[in-house]
Design goal:
Blueprint (H helix, E strand, L loop, with lengths): L9 E2 L18 E3 L5 E5 L10 E17 L2 E14 L7 E12 L3 E13 L5 E13 L9 E6 L3 H9 L4
Parallel strand pairs: 2-9
Antiparallel strand pairs: 1-8, 3-4, 4-5, 5-8, 6-7, 6-9
């Protein structure tokens, strides 16, 4: 369902001389896309309403550090993902899927990659994890500040329809 799109691909970093970012060439901004910051995992009933939600997911925070090595930017992201119980009992563990996309000028998606997290809530109502990701992107002659790193939950049609009708939890 998720595709790495043509253009600047996420790729492994190779050993090379690291350069400090030049003034004005700091890390690109890391942005949690608000419409995709929440998700829902439904219970067994076919209806998609708050009384059939087993878990909610929330992309809570992201921090980004980066280093430049030639025309490659090495990113270190820490993504805080929260799981919260809904009204339908469905165990203590929830698996959530989110994406990280590198976006260029004109909102062009240069690459997009999925990530999965598992949150064990134990007996708690809410729990979270910090997902640490390290990736390298080829700049292709662009300045790091010409890019943005966008994050969101990968939403299925049922979740999109749910949030059209039920904005709050």
């Amino acid at each position: 369902m998720l595709l790495v799109l043509a253009g600047c691909q996420l790729m492994p970093s190779f050993g090379s001389k690291k350069e400090a970012a030049a003034p004005g060439e700091a890390c690109p901004p890391a942005v949690i896309l608000r419409p995709l910051a929440n998700t829902a995992v439904f219970g067994p009933a076919p209806k998609r309403a708050p009384d059939n939600v087993a878990f909610y997911g929330l992309l809570s925070d992201v921090s980004l550090k980066c280093e430049r090595a030639g025309d490659t930017l090495r990113l270190k992201l820490d993504v805080v993902v929260i799981g919260e119980r809904g009204l339908v009992p469905r165990g203590n563990v929830v698996d959530l899927n989110y994406f990280v996309a590198v976006v260029g000028p004109g909102q062009t998606i240069l690459s997009k990659r999925p990530f999965a997290v598992r949150i064990d809530l134990g007996n708690a109502k809410r729990a979270g994890v910090t997902d640490h990701i390290e990736e390298a992107i080829a700049l292709g002659g662009r300045r790091p500040t010409d890019l943005s790193i966008d994050l969101g939950f990968q939403q299925g049609p049922d979740v999109i329809e749910f949030y059209k009708h039920f904005r709050g939890r």
